[in-house]
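Researcher: Good morning. I'm working through a list of sequences from a screen, and I'd like to move beyond sequence-only analysis. For each chain I'm collecting a predicted structure so we can compare shapes side by side. This is the next one on the list. No need for commentary yet; just the structure.
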Amino acid sequence: MDYRKCIAVFGLWLVPIAALSHTSAIGLGRERGQFMNCPDKSFPVISATRVTSDSKTADLWTCWYDGAPVHTLPLPAPDIVSRVARAGQVFAADAVEVTPLGTQWIRLKSGTEGKRLYVPLAYCRRVAPENIAGSDLPIGRENLGPYDGLPANYRPSDLVAVPSRYCYSDLPQELRAEALEACLQMLDAARRETGLTIKILSAYRSAQTQAYLCRQKIESAGIEQRLVARPGHSEHQLGTAVDLVGDGGMYLLHELFNTTGEGRWLQLNSHRFGFVPSYSRQRALDEGTPYEPWHFRYVGRDNIEPFQADGDVRE
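Model: Good morning. Structure tokens for this chain:
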């Protein structure tokens, strides 16, 4: 296996390691153990019972980062960290506030008048009520965004293995059956029409793997990072999203991938096969999301029109 391919994909397949030491993610260079010296106050936890479709779920958020700081003000200053949240804790929030620096904070509901607690949104996930169906979500109509996520255990039942000849490395990849069929048709068409060989770098990714990747990125770049989605909020967990690259690996996971023959062909032709560039340049300008010309999501040919109307299919 080519060592360059191995290095490129190694990080995408690391699994969470419980014993891995890590620093706090508020960018202050403090060790996680220093947060543990905060007073052991009770945290407003809501019973993690099964949420039914008629429950009020819009306010429920779950901490995915063990030891996430809880603040008395929405500012990343060490002297106002009052406690820590544990991974899996569920709590209620009544607003998302944004600081002048652009950092988003969840404002927790409080029974005490005038008393507020805040948790950085980067450490939390929220499951959209319509995503708690308990079955495979309809392709192209999933509700997924910064405030609408997937259950941590969501894994489509129709995932199938990608044939190894279409993978960039020897590491196994999976996609939902319908998405895989369309993706292989697209890659075959690129080779047939232009002689270009496009490979799949990454496909389905579990929430657990996404949590590991997100934690590592937060710890290296801070909670303001937007390059790695929070667990439960990544399109890869849908089983319909792919990161693509030319067989030569030119501009792998780089904005300049759109200047390669493979990148240009995908931008012009992916819609023919039911794929859309989720993080287009226009969306980056409108919403401040990262521009990722290598990332495509299968929504189905029948669902392409709304994306075309939004200007997200062609650039």
